[in-house]
Amino acid sequence: MDLINLGIKSIFIENMVFAYFLGMCSFLAVSKKVSTAFGLGLAVVFVLSITVPMNWLLNEYILNEGALTWLGPKFATIDLTFLRFIMFIAIIAAMVQLVEMMIEKFSPSLYGSLGIFLPLIAVNCAILGSSLFMAQRDYTIAEASVFGFGSGFGFFLAIIALAAIREKLKYSNVPDGLKGLGITMFITGLMGLAFMSFMGISI
Amino acid sequence: MSTETLEMPVAKPKEALLSKRRKKFITDPLNDDNPITIQVLGICSALAVTTQMKPTMVMAISVIFVLVFSNLLISVMRNLIPGRVRIIVQLAVVATLVTLVNEVLKAYAFDMYKELSVFIGLIITNCIVMGRLEAFALNNKPYDSALDGLGSGLGYSWIILAVAFFREIWGSGKVFGYPVFEAIGMDDFQANGLMVSPVGAFIVLGIIIWVQRTKTGYVEH
């Protein structure tokens, strides 16, 4: 039950885009068409579901204070948390590369539709952000997996919704200075307001 | 003067430390080519940390530091980095600098460190940093690159400080934690909760973008 609650929380209430503003760069840049937004959203869900549990393992067995005890008792006092950023980003970049190669090998059609977005994902703040939140909140491995998938899915929903609105927006008469980024900011704000109504829901 | 130039005709005149061309690196990103409002980079942190002025200031200084030094370091190494692995090299350099900032904050400003939490770490994936490295530092000399980093950092800073100013004064009636409205005798000031919430950030930034683009005349198609 706790896991379902955490899932709902990470998808709707603490949505990566609307509550923490993570992944805004790609959220704004790749939301002009629904089809491309769909591709990017899918890639983010995919990469997040893999990297968050991976980084959990890394955190638990290498980086945390006392995590190296499995090497021998004299390693018990070593605290490598200051290496967190560089290790997490290395894992993410490596995983993205690996996922890209695997998709290319096993499903060329999916690779065709995700192709350009995969390398971009390595520098998407939603990916690194989720891993850092995971480390900060001391999740267990099950919670970390659910959190990773939930955050990804929340991003997926948000980017598709925004892309759908922006496709319609092409036909409206927006003031010159507000075209593009400006009006998108307002729309995102209003969408965030809608997502705030999920606050307090628990099962 | 003329005799001096005759004596060394081959040597090119050395460029002034702050020549016109170099001044442009700093002034362009402030307005006409602003990283946030025109290039749409680094929006994540622009919104997340701006509920109050103080953490925003710390964030701005951290980003300027990381931008200047990552630009400088990558520019020094630009001829040594193979094209295929440049992203990894850039990430490694940026992550190292951000770790430095993080450790310094943890040691000397622990309250700020707690408040900014993951957003210091997220400077690594701030698109401005990667964007400037890719677009400028890889093809330009170290000094120019450092100036370019400084310019982009300042352009980023003034926008996030402006957003923070409006959010803090409307959201809690304070500037840098100082209660302005009480000081001028308006005790019945009602704080606007919307400004503190994420929604307020989007709307304030939207308005700033509108005003700024109307002034510069930039239109997106």
Main attributes?
heterodimer; A: 203 residues; mainly alpha; 9 helices; globular; B: 221 residues; two-stranded antiparallel sheet; 12 helices; 2% strand
Distance between the termini of chain A: 7 Å
Percent helix of chain A, as a range, is 55-70%
- Strand residue percentage of chain A: under 5%
How would you describe the shape of chain B?
A: globular
Task: Tell me what the structure shows.
The complex is a heterodimer of chains A (203) and B (221). The radius of gyration of chain A is 19 Å and the shape is globular. The longest helix of chain A has 30 residues, at 34-63. Chain A starts with a helix and ends in a 7-residue tail after the last helix. In chain A, α3 (34-63) packs parallel to α7 and α4 (84-106) crosses α5 (108-114). Chain A has helices at residues 2-13, 24-29, 34-63, 84-106, 108-114, 117-121, 125-136, 141-169, 181-196. Chain A is mainly alpha-helical and 203 residues long. The model of chain B is unreliable at 1-9 (pLDDT under 50). Chain B has helices at residues 2-7, 20-27, 43-48, 53-76, 86-108, 110-116, 118-121, 127-137, 142-171, 180-183, 193-196, 198-216; strands spanning 174-175, 178-179. In chain B, 66% of the residues lie in helices and 2% in strands. The longest helix of chain B has 30 residues, at 142-171. Chain B has a domain at 28-161. Chain B has 221 residues and is mainly alpha-helical. In chain B, strands 1-2 form a two-stranded antiparallel ribbon. In chain B, β1 (174-175) and β2 form a beta hairpin. At the A-B interface, α2, α4, α7 and α9 of A face α3, α5 and α12 of B.
